[in-house]
Amino acid sequence: MSNNDKLLEIKNLHTGFDIGGKTYYAVKDVSFDVNKKEVVCIVGESGCGKSVMSLSIMDLLPKHNGKIDKGQILFQGKDIVPLTTNEMNNIRGKDISMIFQEPMTALNPVLTIGFQMDEVLLNHTRISKEEVRKKSISLLKQVGISRAEQIVHEFPHQLSGGMRQRVMIAMAIACQPQLLIADEPTTALDVTVQAQILELIKQIQEEVGMAVMLITHDLGVVAEMADRVVVMYAGQVVEQSDVDRIFYDPKHPYTKALLGSIPRLEEKIEVLNTIKGIVPSLKNMPETGCRFADRCPEAMPECRTITPELGETEKGHAVRCILYDTSRPAEKAEVQS
Amino acid sequence: MLLYTLRRIVIMIPILIMISIVVFALALAMPGDALSGQIDPSNTKPEYIEEMREQLGLNDPVHVQYGRWAAGILQWDFGRSFVHRMDVTEAIGQRLPNTILLSVLSLLLTYVLAFFMGRYAGRHPYTIGDYGIQGLNYLMLAIPSFVAAIFAIFFFSFQLGWFPATGSIGSGVTPGTMEYYLSKLKHAALPAIVLGMLTTASYTQFLRNDIIENAQKDYVRTARAKGTPENKIYNKHILRNSIIPIVTLFGFDIGSIIGGAVIIETVFTYPGIGELLITSIGRRDSAVVIAITLMLSVATLVGNLIADLLYGVIDPRIRVE
């Protein structure tokens, strides 16, 4: 794939939080790309650093203690990490936009939908207020809100969760961004509404021709939407590949375990499969060795001493596990030399 | 909204009747009456005092006295002040403009100062400026108003001579001239500042904390994700939310405009309602005491109503049908 197709390149991203004078990394050495017009799904349990990673891209980390320590985020070939807030404001909402998990709180409760819709257009375009309002209404219609003319005068509490998420999507696509980051956009919604919202994102993605970075822990959603999948665990990428290989030829034990925990219709089981244990918290992250070792069914003694690296097992399929030779740091060094 | 307001006003009527009974009963329960304050018992025939009591109706049963008084009120007759030898309405009417000037001035100072200090401290928390404002706040909260008033008189009136120490008007100015109004303002300024100290400090703190809290909210993150400049985020998104509790308090403050400040007016010997209330209690001028207390009750009730209505106006989630 040529360089021109790469829309977003994340290189060795380290995002940390300062707690009590020490920096704890929620995202440690994450690298992956998003190509133009591609849907990339980021998968992993809660606490894997998915959201922190996406907030890093948008420069929306909590100001008082969150910061990007190392690494680059290249958007259209340009590093956006060193940009000032003002410079980021020219990108946010215009070239990259984002929708969030909680539509109930993501809109300002005391401003009208119309005000909040208009705002994104007023931030990035130089058209008159009347034109902006017209555009807002047509955008709301585009996301399937039929009463758009009335809705612009209403307040968020007058809308249902699904409607609010549609408003969020309408705002996000207002300036026809290159990249839409959707951080678990359906988690807080009813199951029936979830499918509609995903359908809408997919449909708009095709219409507008934007790339979508979809963060989810629902593998059903992944199968439905993704072109490529990035599996994250404890702040690291543990496996990435195209969607078919993730589902039919998963390599990393964590990916296998995630897939194994989906109940299947044809099987009759008493207890649902789960992955034992929880993601280690920021303060209890193992210094050396594999971060998944404690929960891994295939763990060997070496797993606690050798820190695996992300290595390609075949073109376009990378794994971070010493079961695969390419992930052993020593051998990788040899390959490089 | 109109219907709601009307309903609230109608509900006030029984409340006011209850209050008037309590107030009337309490005033009568005060030891002594206007006569015992006015007449030297050792110098007057007891028969004469008794006759006067009979004449003034002070010997009638309580409910008869109350009925007579209540009937008077319905005709805007609050009785006569024995001390001031004029109608109660007139005695209060003379003082009311002073108190309103003082209260409005104090409220204005409170809101302007609290708005700007709170907005600054909320936007720049944990900076030198914020600590300065907070330090000032705690000082204003910690010093009792009568102490502050005495210090203010000492420094600004006696030492520096910037403001007059007592009264509400300089001597020898003709009413209606520019000089007259300036003199009024100058007399009200110092008590207004001291009167507003406590509320300024609390409202600044309310606004600051609310802004800090709101800055963490999801909708702020959304606004940032849209590329909205920080100034607009603070001045539109956050302030529009954080101003709600302050504006609502304004309703209650309106109630206090008429009430004035008993302590501050007394310390500054500022001829307002509060000072009138204190002297009237001291001299058993029960008609005045009852009238002022009733007036304060009405002001509080109306203030509460305004507060509730303001809530509906400013917060779309509580708009009343």
TrEMBL record, chain A:
Keywords: ATP-binding, Cell membrane, Membrane, Nucleotide-binding, Transport. It comes from the Bacteria. Gene3D superfamilies: P-loop containing nucleotide triphosphate hydrolases. Residues 8-259 form the ABC transporter domain. One of its GO terms (molecular function) is ATP binding. It is a peripheral membrane protein. InterPro entries: AAA+_ATPase (IPR003593), ABC_Ni/Peptide_Import (IPR050388), ABC_transporter-like_ATP-bd (IPR003439), ABC_transporter-like_CS (IPR017871), Oligopep_ABC_C (IPR013563), P-loop_NTPase (IPR027417). CDD domains: ABC_NikE_OppD_transporters. It is found in: Cell membrane. One of its GO terms (cellular component) is plasma membrane. PANTHER family: DIPEPTIDE TRANSPORT ATP-BINDING PROTEIN DPPD, OLIGOPEPTIDE TRANSPORT ATP-BINDING PROTEIN APPD. This is Peptide/nickel transport system ATP-binding protein.
UniProtKB/TrEMBL annotation, chain B:
Its main location: membrane. The chain crosses the membrane at residues 9-30, 100-117, 138-158, 188-207, 243-268, 288-314. One of its GO terms (cellular component) is plasma membrane. It holds the Pfam family BPD_transp_1. It is a multi-pass membrane protein. Residues 96-307 form the ABC transmembrane type-1 domain. Gene3D superfamilies: MetI-like (1.10.3720.10). It is found in: Cell membrane. The keyword Membrane applies. Keywords: Cell membrane, Membrane, Transmembrane, Transmembrane helix, Transport. GO terms for biological process: transmembrane transport. Belongs to the binding-protein-dependent transport system permease family. This is Peptide/nickel transport system permease protein. It comes from Evansella caseinilytica.
